[in-house]
Amino acid sequence: MEAVGKGFSTRIRRMILLALLFAIPTRLRLVPELVNDPDLWWHLRTGDWSLAHGAVPRVDVFSSFHPWVAYSWSYEVLLALLYRKFALFGVIGLVAALSTAVVIALLLLTTRFNTSFLRATLLTAIGAITLAPMFAPRPWLFTVLFATVELAILYQARSSRNPYSLLLLPPLFCIWANVHIQFIYGIAILAIAAADGLFAESLRRFHAVSSFEGLSGRLWLCLIASWAATLLNPYGAKIYRVIYQYSQHTYVLSYVDEFQAMNFRHPVHFLVLGLLVAAVATLAYRRKVQTFEIFLLLLATFLAFRMVRDIWFLVIVALSVLAGDKPSERPADGTSRPIRLSPTAGEMLAIAVITLAVVAATVHSRQLSNERLNAVAAANFPERATEFVRKHHFTGPLYNDFNWGGYLIWRLPELRVAIDGRTNLYGDGRIARFNATWSGVHNWQTDSELAQARLVIGYVNAPLSSLLRSDSRFRLVYEDELAVVFVQAGEPARLRTD
For the chain, which terminal residue's Cβ has fewer other Cβ atoms within 10 angstroms, N or C? Predict the structure, then answer.
């Protein structure tokens, strides 16, 4: 009787711990400021356009009319459908659902190994806290989720020596390639797993061991099939052109926050560094050189220290290393025995109820209504200025700030923006030119796109906004505490200030 009571008490504690774990994304990131993401709006408009036309865009219909690969088209359609049904609250809900799914996937990954429940839960909690800044309305959430699932599948195949779980990877990559361009990172993970035997053989004198011994041939076949699956998208092989375009960025790496390297002014950066140090120490402690983990960790470290948007890669790799078993600890048959949570239907229901209660309490306490979300967006983007432009039917060409381009695509669909957050479409040179002009640096007057503009919308305190007040080519027609609107001097002077 005492044993039964102890087992029941243990299950209760596990249920509460899991529910609190799954609530971490909600408590950390379910905030109204999520709608301030400048890229949210062009993603919404792209999905809306695809639904209206029953097709994906082939050219840049919002700006330049150049060929364009909308590589996140399925995410954008989902986002637009949620917005049509629930408005901005649907966007917030999608972030909460995907973030929670990432945490669940992290727990499944860490429990693939012969480790304790408490250790797996603690590692997952650290991972969730470290990944919290990435819980945003961006398609990269699918990449984090799918990469974690991919690693879990690979470790499952390794521990069971059963190749059939690898059959899940080609369909996963087919979906992934239609959601986010960073499916290429998943291909890299799979390539390292396939080449693991070659790495281990070349490092044999260092006591290297192949984690996927006996699966090498099947992994190569899986790699080929998964790569072929990525071509099953509306753009075919053209999607790889986008990867090349991103690889050519240089100026953008220092201009856009998410492309910059970690500066260690944020606590999360120190957590990432701590996970890396712990993972390296763990690998050094083991008696065998595990080539898959080593090469994967090297790749993840390079990417994470290159730009902050890729710290997720290092986080999930480090967690898999820290949760992993040592080769010498595996049973004689070569398999490992991962722990099984095995919650009953009633326990799963209880976990869901607790998690939803946390979500509901967060929504209520933070007033996450559509009215509040719209007010937050209006305080950060030029809503009143765009309403003024629409009311007076001003026409383009439009010259706008980089950070507002996505919002203007959403609010002024009848006008083509000059630039927005799709950096691969514009390239380093054009983005640098816009930044120089808006900063009012030397020769800003010679910007040909500014000279041709009939409409300018920008921050009220931007250097260019101050310079244009005394520029005879333009006339100020609107101003509020956030934005200004200029038109060419020949336009009627319908000045309004709020």
Answer: N
